[in-house]
Specification:
By secondary structure, the chain is of the alpha/beta class. The chain has one domain (2-262): Metallo-beta-lactamase, Chain A (4-Layer Sandwich). It contains 10 helices and 14 strands. The strands form 2 sheets. Strands 6-5-4-3-2-1-14 form a 7-stranded mixed sheet. It has a 7-stranded mixed sheet with strand order 7-8-9-10-11-12-13. The longest helix is centred in the last third of the chain and has 14 residues, at 225-238. The chain is globular.
Length: 263
């Protein structure tokens, strides 16, 4: 069995926690080290028990305290080579013995977990999502997606749980305070996933065994938790699905989510 908790998720910073019987991982460290330590403490996890940190990509809202945490608590960090090279400030803080490399589209292992990093469309060096397996359990992490692809959908099939981006609502994005170039980037093919596309994605995966979703990486300026949830449910209704078919919660930018147990 796997257990998952979103510590922080949003345009202001991201860090996720998951554990199996023998392994505890962080995915990204995009808020301060103090905040991550405090969030872990609040869910009864000691940061010194973290076995590794996985990195999706090098943007600051995903790696802000990566080097500090690895250095202070002697935690191994796993990222692909292009991502390592794109975050020299963080890399220079991390001891060489704690720098590990993986290749996208190739499975690697950390203790009792098998991890498959898959390519995603985002404006970073070599961004990825993750499929994480333990025995018969599979969960997926897919955020920072400029658009959904058949390859990503294929990777997400068979997951009982997905942490899925639901970043913005198009009409709110048009009217928010972001400058035009940023609005264009967010809505572009290498930007972020909208609420309605998140809903369509969930609808297409329900028959493959998907039971629970946390909507994450919501924009502070161009989305609202209630709106994301409502829009996703509206999309599900278009495919004759409802909350009776799947459990959906929305990750907070400010505090940990409820634990999800993935069997």
């Amino acid at each position: 069995m796997l257990k998952f908790c979103s510590l922080y998720s949003g345009s202001t910073g991201n860090s996720l926690f998951l554990e199996s019987e023998n392994t505890k991982l962080l995915v990204d460290a995009g808020v301060s080290a103090k905040k991550i330590v405090n969030a872990l403490t609040s869910i009864d996890i000691n940061i010194e028990d973290i076995d590794a940190i996985l990195v999706t990509h090098e943007h600051s809202d995903h790696v802000k305290s990566l080097g500090t945490i690895s250095n202070k608590f002697n935690i191994p960090v796993f990222a692909n080579i292009k991502t390592w090279n794109a975050m020299p400030e963080q890399k220079n803080k991390i001891s060489s013995q704690n720098q590990f490399h993986f290749n996208n589209q190739e499975i690697f292992e950390i203790k009792d977990l098998k991890i498959y990093p898959f390519n995603i469309p985002h404006d970073a060096a070599n961004p990825c999502g993750f499929n994480i397996y333990n025995k018969n359990s599979k969960l997926s992490i897919a955020t920072d997606l400029g658009h959904m692809t058949t390859q990503i959908l294929n990777n997400l099939e068979g997951s009982s749980f997905i942490m899925l981006e639901s970043n913005y609502e198009p009409e709110v994005l048009k009217c928010c305070s972001y400058p035009y170039y940023l609005k264009t980037r967010i809505a572009g093919p290498n930007g972020h996933l909208s609420n309605n596309l998140a809903g369509k994605t969930i609808a297409s995966l329900i028959n493959s065994g998907l039971k629970e979703v946390i909507l994450g990486h919501l924009s502070k300026e161009s989305n609202f938790p209630e709106l994301a949830h409502k829009t996703v449910l509206s999309e599900l209704n278009e495919y004759n699905y409802s909350e009776d078919h799947i459990k959906i919660q929305v990750a907070s930018r400010l505090e940990p989510s409820n634990f999800v147990e993935v069997c």
